[in-house]
Amino acid sequence: MWESICLTIAATAGNNIGKVLQKKGTLILPPISFKLKVIKAYAFNKAWVMGFLLDIFGAMLMLRALSLAPVSVIQPVSGCGLAILSIFSHFYLKEIMNAVDWIGIVLAGIGTIGVGAGGEEQKSSSISMFRILWLACAVAILFVLLNGWLRMYRRQRREHELMQYEVVEEIIYGLESGILFGISSVVSKMGFVLLEQGFSHLLVPICILMSICCSASGFVYQTRGLKHGRAIVVSTCAAVASIVTGVLAGMLALGERLPEAPIARLCLLLGWLLIISGVVLLVTSARLVRYLPRPWRRVLRSSVERNVGIRHSSSIRGREQSPSTVIQASALHHLITSPKEKA
């Protein structure tokens, strides 16, 4: 069980860090296309290539983890990718983190340990086609209802000539993308379970292709929400919906079960709760700080300013290593005051 959890952490770290490096590389690159010059520009950009390779490597590790452990264990642990991304951004990209961010990281880490302690390896139970069809119909009906709700709010917004997105629209886009991400993991796991039950080997690549389609559709919905809505709402709903969908779909469609031992079951449930709480704190930390009492906000503000000062001083030291570009303050003061004295 711990092997699959470590693989999941490595996989989600590769996925998230890879996307950040790709984003960093595209800042100086043209929009991607099939032109030879554009392809060469992407191929020779070290940051983009490194991010792309990390992203692919993470996807391969995730498939390996899904072949070893239940989706109800893998999917919640994959939510720790946001915590790993926050740590990477703090130390590599020099982004400032507040105390709420660190609390979210700690909660996600403790939740992962709880999932690892409570999760247990399960023998693959026979998959019922009736359950799979029932799950597919349930997801389709849910999407019809969500899209109908979305169209209703769009119509109201147009009638009132409102340009800004409603909160409900942001929530719907986040839920739709998160559901598709969770279903993607379940479909991948289903291919490995069918292989263990003696079905054709062709079902594994077919399920993986279906999983890729679900993930791509999820990114489309998430991009739509992020384009006009607030990232804080869309990302939170997507992360929570992905974890909940993966757990419920794994239990309903693949026959996964909670541990029989009471302590193991408690650890698993607490692990799920802590991971979801940590992810929510990481996504909403900037807004939560505004609602804290004033004394706490002062402490957080002073710690952030201290971090900024330390990084600013370190950057100044790095610049002072080139003495030819430095003008001493006394010399600059002399240059400024000397004309007045002569006058």
UniProtKB/TrEMBL annotation:
<comment type="similarity">
    <text>Belongs to the NIPA (TC 2.A.7) family.</text>
</comment>
<keyword id="KW-0812">Transmembrane</keyword>
<keyword id="KW-1003">Cell membrane</keyword>
<dbReference type="Pfam" id="PF05653">
    <property type="entry name" value="Mg_trans_NIPA"/>
</dbReference>
<comment type="subunit">
    <text>Homodimer.</text>
</comment>
<keyword id="KW-0406">Ion transport</keyword>
<comment type="function">
    <text>Acts as a Mg(2+) transporter. Can also transport other divalent cations such as Fe(2+), Sr(2+), Ba(2+), Mn(2+) and Co(2+) but to a much less extent than Mg(2+).</text>
</comment>
<dbReference type="InterPro" id="IPR008521">
    <property type="entry name" value="Mg_trans_NIPA"/>
</dbReference>
<keyword id="KW-0813">Transport</keyword>
<feature type="transmembrane region" description="Helical">
    <location>
        <begin position="47"/>
        <end position="67"/>
    </location>
</feature>
<feature type="transmembrane region" description="Helical">
    <location>
        <begin position="171"/>
        <end position="195"/>
    </location>
</feature>
<feature type="transmembrane region" description="Helical">
    <location>
        <begin position="100"/>
        <end position="119"/>
    </location>
</feature>
<feature type="transmembrane region" description="Helical">
    <location>
        <begin position="263"/>
        <end position="289"/>
    </location>
</feature>
<dbReference type="GO" id="GO:0015095">
    <property type="term" value="F:magnesium ion transmembrane transporter activity"/>
</dbReference>
<keyword id="KW-0460">Magnesium</keyword>
<protein>
    <recommendedName>
        <fullName>Probable magnesium transporter</fullName>
    </recommendedName>
</protein>
<feature type="transmembrane region" description="Helical">
    <location>
        <begin position="232"/>
        <end position="251"/>
    </location>
</feature>
<dbReference type="GO" id="GO:0005886">
    <property type="term" value="C:plasma membrane"/>
</dbReference>
<dbReference type="GO" id="GO:0005769">
    <property type="term" value="C:early endosome"/>
</dbReference>
<feature type="transmembrane region" description="Helical">
    <location>
        <begin position="73"/>
        <end position="93"/>
    </location>
</feature>
<keyword id="KW-0967">Endosome</keyword>
<keyword id="KW-1133">Transmembrane helix</keyword>
<feature type="transmembrane region" description="Helical">
    <location>
        <begin position="131"/>
        <end position="150"/>
    </location>
</feature>
<keyword id="KW-0472">Membrane</keyword>
<feature type="transmembrane region" description="Helical">
    <location>
        <begin position="201"/>
        <end position="220"/>
    </location>
</feature>
<dbReference type="InterPro" id="IPR037185">
    <property type="entry name" value="EmrE-like"/>
</dbReference>
